Amino acid sequence: MSSVTTTVEVVDTTTSPTSSLPIIDFSPFFSGKPEEKLETGKQMVKVLREVGFMYIINHGIEQKEIDDIFEWSKKFFELSDEQKSKCPHPPNGAHHRGWSALGKEKVVQMVFDEKEISNLRKHPDVKESFDVGKEDGYYCNFWPEDTDIPGFKAGCQNYYNKATLTSKYFLRALALGMDLNEDFFLNYHIDSENQLRLLHYPPTKEQDLRNGSTERIAAHTDFGTMTLLLQDSCGGLEVEDPYHKGVFIPAPYVPGALVVNTGDFLMRWSNNALKSTLHRVRAPPIISETGYSKVRYSIPFFISADRTKTIDCLPGTYSEENPKKYEPINALEYLSMRLNATY
Ligand SMILES: O=C(O)CCC(=O)C(=O)O
Ligand SMILES: [Fe+2]
C-alpha cells in the first residue's frame, strides 16, 4: 500500500510543539481501489483526531477553478460600497448570506452572553465578507446587480457546486476512516446548506495586528461538519497546537492545497474523538516596508449537515467506559445557535 502522507508526520508532540500541519495527498482515493480509499480515509481521520487541521492536495478542484473564484472575489470587493450595499447581509446572524461591510462581524468563540458579546464587538475583525448558500436553499441568497459585476453569480455557483462535490469525496473518506459505511455521512449531507464565504482583509497597520489591538479574525473554531479553505499567499493563518494550548502554528500558503479542518458539529458528533481546533488570522510573517500588512483574500467553504437531520454520537465513538457526552441535536438548531452569536 502506498503511503499518501507526503510531508510532516504527526509525531509524538506531547513534549515538543507541532511545527507544521500535515499534508494529505487525496489522489489515491480517486483510484477507486478499496484499499487505497480506506488508507486515505484512515490518514484523514488520524489527522482529524490528533490535530483537526490538514492540507489536502490533489483534491480534484483544478487550479483554474481556484484562480477563477479568487478573481471573482477581488472583483466583488472592488465594487463601491454603494454597489455592495445592494446585497446586504440581513441583521439576523443565522441568515448568513450577502455582504458584510468592514467591521460588521466579530467572530466570537463560544460566547452566548449578550453583554459579553457586545463588549467583544467593540473591536470588530478587520475584514469584509460575502456569503453564498445553495440557490434554492432555506436561506435565500443576496446578489449584487448583474450589471455591476456580470458573471459573478455564475462564477460563485460554479465554485459552490465544485466544492460541494469535493466535500462528498471527503465525507466518503471520513466515513471509511471511521470504520463506517462509505455513504454514512453522505446520508446526512444530501441537501446540505453549505456556505461559500469570500473574505477580504484590507491592508492593516501591521503593528496593531502584531500587538493584537486589531484582529483580522479572532481565534475561533468553525461550526459545521468540515471546512475547506482556499487562501492566497499573504500568510497569517495560524492554528493552535493541539498539545500546547495558546501556542499557534503558522499555516502558510501551500499552492493548490485546500486547508481542511473539523468543525464543532463533527467534533460533537464524534463524541469529541475528532478535534475542532482553534485558528485565527494574525499579521503576515513578512514585515512590510510600508508599516501596513498586505491585503489578504481567503475563501472558506463550510460544510453543513441537512437542516432536517438530527445527529447522535457516531457508532464506535462511545462505550461503557467512554459514555456519550452529548444529547442528540438537530443540525439547524445547532448552527443557528452558533451563528446568532456572531452578529
Ligand atoms: O482567512 C482565513 O484564512 C480564515 C477564515 C476562517 O477561519 C473562517 O472564516 O472561519
Ligand atoms: Fe474559521
UniProtKB/TrEMBL annotation:
Pfam families: 2OG-FeII_Oxy, DIOX_N
Protein name: Fe2OG dioxygenase domain-containing protein
Domain of life: Eukaryota
InterPro entries (alphabetical): DIOX_N (IPR026992), IPNS-like_FE2OG_OXY (IPR044861), IPNS-like_sf (IPR027443), Oxoglu/Fe-dep_dioxygenase_dom (IPR005123)
Species of the source: Pachysolen tannophilus NRRL Y-2460
Domain Fe2OG dioxygenase residues, every copy: 192-305
Similarity comment text for this entry: Belongs to the iron/ascorbate-dependent oxidoreductase family.
Keywords for the protein's UniProt record, in alphabetical order: Iron, Metal-binding, Oxidoreductase
Molecular function GO labels: metal ion binding; oxidoreductase activity
GO terms (BP aspect): small molecule biosynthetic process
